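Give me the fold.
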Amino acid sequence: MKKAFNLTTCEGDADFLADPVETARQLEGYDGIELQVIDDPPGGLVDPALVTGLHMACVPCWYALWTGDEKGLLDEFGTLAEAEEYYGGPLTRDTLLSKFRRDLVWADRLGAEYLVFHIAESRVIESFTEEYLHTDEEICEACAEILDILFEGRKAGPLLLLENLWQPGMNLRRPEITRDMLEAVKYPNKGIMLDTGHLMNTNTSVDTQEQGLAWIHRVIDAHETAGFDLCGAVRGVHLNASTSGALAKRVKEAPPKLEGSYKDRTSKMFFHVFERDQHRPFTAPGVKDLVERLAPDYLTTELITMDQDDRRRKNSIQLNAIK
């Protein structure tokens, strides 16, 4: 099992890679990093030897664009001009695909062993209300379509890992959806990236890490009972904890009033999502046994950190919890 920690190329996040001493300090106990390329890094900053995996672009709201639903775009963005600004180009499928194709280029350039792709979709208001317009089936079908286009003609290459969230898509609440989603993708080198914190977020009764741990085992058990070997399909794990059930219930009962531009509304949404999806070290007794049960090829400590010292401290805490 290879161990990595999450890193982005946002300004300031990966700067330590220019310092070999600090890089070695940050990587203590780890085999590499799982990188998300947001800003193009300066030439030579990211040593391909350090990159274990690459996290593909996260686009929370994309279904209306993909299906050519102009009314859906107007309902979400207010104007088509705002939608074009959000997506960074014309309102076509190619604009969305270009974001993911850029990731494939970077994966090849950096020699990433695996890629992570979110199987989910959520409009801004749905992040608060959790009352969704689209079904798991609709989102998974569209995701499979996207991935089949992106990987068309590829018989081999990086391991493609489908990640669970708590919105519509492959959220692991329904074993038949998990099975069908994995089978729908034609690219052969594939598996699941199970995010433990995201899975905790599917149950708003989870308010402690112990409850979250028990819930994850229940989900695995439910898949086994349904005849699907979830542990066998899980090739990667994003290890973290999110115990925000009470917050989710409170916000759902009294969602905020969303005003201003789409950028203003998404800013409020992202602030809430980071409260909801806490990405803290998962340290409950039994987390080591969970990792051993899942037995992934890749384990990434995916945590929210404030600076280099905070990252190193939290990554160390997470590693110690599974020793």
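The first strand starts at residue 2 and ends at 8.
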